Amino acid sequence: AAADAIEGAGALFIDGGVVGPAPRSTPPTRLYVSGPDCTPMQVLQAEFLEVREIGDAIGRASALKMCYAALTKGTWTLHAALLTAAARLGISGELRTEFEGSQKDAYARMQAMIPRLPVDAGRWVGEMEEIAATFEAAGVTPDFHLGAAEMFRLLDGTPFSAETRETMDRDRTLEETIEAVCKVIADRD
After folding, report:
1. Does residue 17 sit in helix, strand or coil?
2. CA angle 119, 73, 114 (to 5 degrees)
3. DSSP track, 158-183
4. What confidence tens digit (pLDDT) does each residue in 120-148 have?
5. Distance from CA of residue 128 to its chain's centroid?
6. E strands, the chain, where?
7. Beta strand 29-34 with 49-53: parallel, antiparallel or unpaired?
C-alpha cells in the first residue's frame, strides 16, 4: 500500500526495515533495503548504520524485519506471559528455582529485559499485529504474535508504561513488573 501511494505520486519507492537499536553504537544498526533501485539509500551508510541491499523485490526488507522482530519481541512477550501465568498460578518461586538451574542464561535475559518492556509496549502492539498479518500472508499461524500483541497491551496497562527510556526505574525488578501485569489482569476480571 505504501509503495502504491509513493509510486503513484511519481516518486521512487524503496522498502526498508531497521534491525537493531538506534544507530549510536557498535555493532552498527542494520537498515535492510529492497527494491528495483536502492542506490539512493547508500547515502545513509555511516559508522553506526549499515545499509544492506537484499534484492529487487519490494517487501523483502519488510519481511526480514517482521521475521527478526517476531523472534526478539515475540520471545520477550513469551517470557512475560509464562512468568505472569506462573505468578497467577502461585508457582513463581518454584519456576524461578528451576530456571536458575536449567535455563540460567534465558532467565538472566528475562531479568534484564522484562522490566524494560512497559516503556515501549504501547508502540509494539501494532508491530506484533503487523507480524501476525505477515505470517498469515505466508500461510503461517498469526496467533503467536496476536498473543504477543495482547501481552504488550497488558504491559502497557501497568503504571510503568508512563515512564520513558530516560525516566525508567532501572532498579525495577522482574518480579515487580510481573506483579504489575498481574494487577492489570486482576483489575480486568
Report:
1. strand
2. 50
3. SGGGG--TTT--TT--HHHHHHHHHH
4. 999 999 999 999 999 999 999 999 999 99
5. 7
6. 15-19, 29-34, 49-53
7. parallel
